[in-house]
Amino acid sequence: MSVEIRNGAPGDLAAIVALDPATGIAERRHDYLSKALGGFGGSSVKVLVLDGQIAGFAVMSEFFGHPFLERIATAENRRRAGVASALMTHIEMAIDDDRMFVSTNESNEVMRTLLAARNYKVSGVVENLDPGDPELFFVIFKTDIDAAIEAAR
Questions:
Q1: CA-wise closest residue to 55 among 1, 112, 102, 95
Q2: CB of 55 within 8 A of CB of 46?
Q3: String of b and e for 59-74 (b: at least 16 CB within 10 Å)?
Q4: pTM for this prediction
């Protein structure tokens, strides 16, 4: 089994769109992902390639001048296999800031569980992005990332 995490490229768009569950719901997601792959607004995309196939991706940008994980998704047939965790570890280890933010809908129990397991703390709530499903913002500090890396050694 070969695993690679690399920068996404415009040629990855079709594979990324195919595994993003929100693309079918929101047509504008295609444009968003295309722009992110092109670096629009300082965005970047990381992809995890497993045995030659994109198994997951993460879109990074900035939030009030700090790294912000905007979107992360895993191929349906690769869920619960550590793809999102591997992407997050890769991103966390590369941040050169004192903190990183991420958000998810309150209803997204899988992501909330992943964030809690990685020691992210709730940082705020925004109502009315998705009616009836508040957006929860989380933060992790570089000191917590460094402590987790040290503990894993």
A1: 1
A2: no
A3: bbbebeeebbbbbbbb
A4: 0.91
Q: Which amino acid is at 70?
A: E
Q: Please give the full DSSP string across the chain, using - where no structure is assigned.
A: --EEEEE--GGGHHHHHHH-TTTTT-THHHHHHHHHHTTGGG-EEEEEEETTEEEEEEEEEEETTEEEEEEEEE-GGGTTTTHHHHHHHHHHHH--SSEEEEEEETT-HHHHHHHHHTT-EEEEEE-SSSTTSPEEEEEEEHHHHHHHHHHH-
- Cross-strand pairs, 59: 45, 71
Which tokens in the block code for residue 128?
């009315």
Q: What is the mean pLDDT of each run of 10 residues along the chain (153 residues)?
A: 91 90 67 91 95 95 96 89 92 95 96 95 95 96 90 81
Token pair for residue 44?
Answer: 């970047």
